[in-house]
Amino acid sequence: MEDGASQPGTPAVEILRPELPTGDSRENHIFNTNPVLSLADVFRHITAKAAGIDINHSDPDTLPDGWLQASSSIFKADIDNKYLEPFEYSGHKISVLNLVYALLTYGLQPNILALELLKKTLKSRLVRELMRAYFRMNGKPMNDQDLQLQLKINHTWEDVVNGLFEVVAFRHEMRIWARRYFAGLLVPMVAAKGTPSSNGTATGNRTQAALRELCLKRDGHMTVIGRVWNRFWPKDVVPPPRTELWDYGALKACHIIPQGSPESLNLRELLINFSGDSFIVDMINHTSNALMLTTQFHSSFRRFEWSIEAKLVDESKNDNDNWIYVFRKFNPYLPRALDQHADGEEVFFGGKDGNIPSPNPELLNVYTALAKVANASGAAEAIDLILRDEEEIRERGLTGRTWGKVGQNYLVRQLERLPTE
């Protein structure tokens, strides 16, 4: 531990309180017109300024305008940055600043994430001194959840960025934090194969078969997305007339939150931090966590190329009948059947049997938020390249030529998956 470092578990508000003035005096209220910001917005300003990101384009509900039509480089800063170098994962570079900014912009509980990052960086005495020098607390917060900061009138965001990124410990902790969410949350979501119950056991196969039958009844023997009709429909079900908008295929029940989520303690913790709710990892084998998809659709979904987002019709009500589902498109080159859906188009779940639960809105929104983080930060493209390299390993075997591409990251994930397969 660094000389003078805070003790583990010390609240951030107590670490900053001794020398950090509060902004509740009349003089400060009159002369300091800088906005009072949440912790998430403080770190968003810091990373945006360092990465050259236009903070004004960010909206938690959507990716920047023109995302699907333009080169991603328009919205993402260069990976190589003078303030903070990228981290490497399986031979590919990942931008720390872009990932941190995206997590704090699209995460469902950005202040929980920001507080976690703040506590990591405050282990450094120099960082604590700089935070006290640059910011004042708003009012007199009693705990970390109430902590809000205001940039002092005699400092600029350029001062903050230049000062903090000069501290080795600040750069180190931010890099470690970003890498943890990339390797522990985003990569497992994309790399997941199959569904939690398709583990080859008799019980697992029966569970998967039951889940599939329930989802088929719920959605009327078709995929809600892509409108692919179940090739093996029951005789008592009459399929619609075939048109160019319809297709037939083998359907399977695919999970929104994938295999391994409840078993991996690290993934479980990161999911809870990201979403702010522990229930999302406690309902894996349920129709609320399942979509009927083809193998192609599932592969595209798992790579964060599209998602389904739930929106409240009336913000004052949170009951099951008050949600609508919309298609979210994160790749302009989707399979033809998926490409017929416009971004933001409303989709409908539920066939003749209205008693089977539709996909849970919170689960869908967690996955959609992860898709936004992955696409806005450039992580989705990097993960796709990483998994292509790993596919080469599965085909060619682990050799001297392929080891350099994936190294230990691939082997660690394979070991983590053993208990669930």
UniProtKB/TrEMBL annotation:
InterPro entries: HNH_nuc. Residues 247-309 form the HNH nuclease domain. It comes from the Eukaryota. This is HNH nuclease domain-containing protein. It comes from Orbilia oligospora (Nematode-trapping fungus).
